[in-house]
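Let's sit down with a protein and look at its sequence and fold side by side. Please make up or recall a protein chain and show it to me in full. Label the sequence line and the structure token line clearly, so we can match residues to local backbone shapes. Go ahead whenever you are ready, and we will take it from there.
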Amino acid sequence: MGKLITVSGCPRSGTSLMMLIMKEALGEDRIVGVDFPSMPTLRKLPSETEEQYELRKIAWHEKYPSVEADHERRKDLNPNGFWECQFTVGGAHRSLKNNALLDEIEASEEDKVCKIVSQGISRSEAQFIDRIVLMARHPRAVAKSQERLSRRLGVSNPKIGLVDLWGGIATGVGKVHTPKMFIEVTIGFALWYKENPDVPLLIVQFDDLIDDAENTLATVQDFVNDGYFAPAASLVDPDLNRSIPEDGREPDLMAEADEIYDMLLAKDWDGIIAYSNDPKTEHAKQTRQWLCLRSGIMTQRAFCVRCQAGVEGRLKIMKLAREQNIPWESRPCAFECGYDVESTPISIEESVANNHWKVR
């Protein structure tokens, strides 16, 4: 019964390069996935007239204006291909979408090779995975490599979506230069592997692959116990290590990412999990969210600190509360009642009685 030889790791850690190596060493027929997913297109429905189809195309392009540019950007990020499939992010697990492909893999006489990034591993069922080659790249280099990606910044309200509270500081598109993704997907992998310790695991450091491809791939071949990896060393271009680590922004979080990286290399799953449960880490302070009872916003520490700091930072939040008819005068502040891990919490009654929103 066939299973999956799985290439995993944080995005931008060398997973696509290892998939290219696997294709060379084991043959393309063993690869589950394609180099570049097809660009989304809109097909005419049999029931549509030409006019209806043209109208639907206009609406589709209005909704997804950057679909072509996004497709070309992905090609530019990895010119040699990503070799991804439906399991890559979603994970290998039984579902209506996955059943046919999983049946095909299980019916195969040989194991197949598949990329499932760390967040996909956490959604996978171990019964389908034969072994894992986990790519590990320093989080500072991963963060530098992710600068060409983009992210949405802001806080959200269930009714109206992303909310800009401080004139463009809260929302918009910004560069990704943070180890948050590395930390979060590594925590997810640690939780999964703690529950599935019998799955064979080889950690390959990206720098080792770039600096000493022949010996590193010899180790991979011994682990996979299949194929011929020596010729694939020629695919490793030293110039691929072009994202030079730098301290960058968020230095406190970078320091924590360094610790997570060391624990990953040591396979210290317990240490990573303990870190994820600590509410006083910089990562927890930056990512933990809760409901602001006075405004209806899902908020986090940075925004609550601004709200506490002065009236100007609260005006838009108060306006939002009024628009939703929230009786904020009688609501406590969740931040000062327990979510501020830097201060001693006050009682709900005290928070209501000394409502700082009433200060003018």
Remarks:
- The radius of gyration is 24 Å.
- Confidence is low (pLDDT under 50) at residues 150-156, 165-176.
- The longest strand covers residues 129-136.
